[in-house]
Fold:
Amino acid sequence: MINFAFCYEHDEIRNFVRDEVLKCFNQKGIIVAVMCYRSACELQRCISCNCPDVLFYDIQAENGLMRKVVMNAKRQNKKLVSITTHSHDYRPPIEDILLEPMYILPDKSRRQIWSYAVLAYETFLDDKNSFSYYVRPDYIHIPIDNIQYFASEGRRTHVVSAERRDTFYQKLDIVEGLIGKKDCHFLRIHKSYLVNAKYISGYNRDYVFLTTGERLRISKYEYYKYINGIMRENRLKRQSQYAEY
Structure:
């Protein structure tokens, strides 16, 4: 079970965010553990024995003390996912990169809280060799190597592999960001297509041809140039590896 924690000074904010997250996962039939803290000091006292997996907080709270405590929490739990708020004039120090994955909550509306809670949950579940997505009533974990391509349709994304074709609610831009953090090569060939390079058998100015026999349209010349550059680079790497033998 994944542990969600909420650390806000004001009871009204803390309770609202907590309740919305619980409603979100109750609707999906997913049980999560919940912890609430009123201050950075309260959080600090608990992280050594019960460190959260996902933490909602304000990074500027208590004159920056919250940020220091969250840094300590990250040392305790390397997979900690942060969902934070801050003022528009906040200038993140370079050390904030150590808190990644960290998502900035634009506002505390129900839509934003639900969206980022699910994103954080999926991020925590993910590992470098698989991709996770929700298809009612559960999360699916599929090996990256088995995914042939993603195709988007509005806010929905289709994932296509030899074993299955599923549809889940997530924008392709976000999927591309998640995939980009893994050790794999997925190429954007169209605003609606993200393709696993290992399944590309050929391409021309207009289409990418897959080893499965499918062809997918390339929508822009910029995408074609990008694909051409990546595929050329991959060929040179393979040639270099063969030469070593």
Q: What stands out?
A: The longest strand covers residues 147-153.
